[in-house]
């Protein structure tokens, strides 16, 4: 019963996150009223805001309100973000360009604050609930095989409705309807999380502050498991690049396919949905089978090599239809491999760390992910000309993947062989 509760919440968390990402990136990338570089500006502004806000919100909220309440607050902030984004779009349609972007930036602030709360406390909260009810940590690898219909059907329904709205209604009506769907989903998540975590809401000990986080806390947690931190950051970077930028870029690259506007939007949306669909099916069919290999270094290195292949192909592909294809492949591999990497790392962290250390772990790795993505973006604007951001992402990701591979090959593998001997 507890595993099913965790699986249902996790299915809603991931499917809604992916669906909202696809819909919001599509709307921003195709909204001519926001300017020609709206997607790139959105990426940079979200990254900078995330670096400033996510860590602060995650640490301060959990410090003051505890894990369960911070999770619920995170969903409320996501709801507010959707409302503000809708307001920003409405203002852009009537010509208030700068005011529209101001409101959209405020939406990004709320989104970053909500993301910081959820990244820090969502999984530790349900882990605490599992320990409270059955005395065992939550299993986020095994839970992936349940509620597959939520992971698959929900994004499919949202995408189908969106295609109909875009195809048969004007952009204003379509935007209002799409954002209304997003806000309804956020309300469902708020109600669900409050109900699921009610047991630890009532526990006074679990609502006490976790204590102020010092630099030595982060260093000690990372030192306990360097490979797991590297694995999470590597997978999270790959997955975040896809969710935050490359899916939106697909909507711009569709012009190279020379399709009519309606079919082009449909084609790009279908690619985005197939990316998510493939990752969900892989998680259901393969990830559970990989459970017994969670600690296998060779498995993790194999995931890294596949990621290197996808990144290299995108880096060397010329601008045009071939780049649309390689970007689609890159996104497909990124979401799938990133999903496996992060879930293996999450399970390891929750099994090895207590409540405080698990929060510190997620604060550290999520902040490092955002920091590295910002670094890649800045490097792209300085050293690349055409398709600067995505090329820089590829170079940065290749460097990071090689670093993890070399570390595990020359440090971790020899030490494991010494223990076996």
From TrEMBL:
Organism: Photorhabdus aegyptia
Segments crossing the lipid bilayer: 12-29, 41-63, 75-94, 100-122, 148-168, 174-191, 230-251, 263-282, 303-321, 327-346, 358-384, 390-411
Protein's name according to its UniProt entry: MFS transporter
Keywords: Membrane, Transmembrane, Transmembrane helix
Domain of life of the organism encoding this protein: Bacteria
């Amino acid at each position: 019963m507890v595993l099913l509760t965790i699986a249902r919440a996790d299915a809603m968390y991931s499917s809604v996150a992916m669906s909202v990402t696809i819909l919001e990136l599509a709307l921003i990338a195709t909204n001519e009223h926001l300017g020609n570089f709206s997607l790139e500006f959105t990426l940079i502004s979200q990254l900078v805001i995330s670096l400033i806000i996510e860590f602060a919100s995650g640490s301060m909220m959990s410090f003051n309100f505890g894990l369960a309440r911070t999770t619920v607050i995170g969903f409320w902030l996501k709801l507010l973000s959707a409302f503000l984004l809708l307001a920003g779009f409405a203002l852009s349609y009537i010509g208030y360009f700068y005011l529209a972007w101001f409101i959209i930036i405020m939406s990004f602030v709320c989104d970053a604050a909500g993301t910081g709360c959820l990244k820090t406390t969502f999984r530790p909260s349900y882990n605490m609930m599992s320990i409270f009810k059955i005395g065992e940590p939550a299993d986020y690898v095994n839970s992936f095989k349940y509620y597959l219909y939520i992971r698959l059907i929900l994004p499919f329904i949202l995408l189908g409705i969106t295609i109909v709205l875009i195809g048969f209604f004007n952009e204003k009506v379509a935007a209002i309807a799409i954002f209304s769907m997003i806000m309804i989903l956020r309300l469902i998540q708020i109600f669900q999380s409050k109900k699921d975590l009610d047991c630890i809401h009532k526990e006074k000990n679990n609502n006490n502050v976790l204590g102020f986080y010092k630099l030595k806390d982060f260093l000690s947690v990372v030192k306990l498991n360097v490979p797991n931190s590297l694995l999470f950051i590597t997978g999270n970077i790959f997955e975040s690049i896809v969710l935050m930028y490359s899916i939106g870029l697909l909507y711009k690259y569709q012009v190279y396919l020379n399709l009519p506007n309606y079919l082009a939007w449909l084609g790009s949306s279908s690619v985005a949905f197939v990316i998510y669909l493939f990752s969900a099916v892989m998680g259901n069919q393969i990830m559970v089978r990989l459970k017994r290999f969670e600690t296998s270094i060779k498995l993790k290195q194999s995931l890294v090599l596949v990621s290197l292949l996808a990144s290299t192909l995108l880096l060397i592909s010329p601008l045009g239809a071939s780049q649309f294809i390689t970007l689609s492949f890159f996104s497909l591999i990124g979401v799938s491999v990133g999903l496996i990497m992060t879930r293996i790392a999450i399970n390891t962290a929750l099994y090895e760390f207590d409540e405080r250390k698990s929060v510190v772990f997620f604060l550290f790795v999520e902040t490092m992910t955002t920091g590295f993505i910002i670094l890649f973006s800045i490097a792209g604007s300085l050293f690349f000309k055409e398709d600067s951001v995505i090329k820089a992402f590829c170079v940065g990701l290749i460097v990071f993947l090689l670093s993890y591979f070399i570390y595990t090959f020359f440090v971790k593998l020899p030490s494991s062989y010494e223990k076996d001997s």
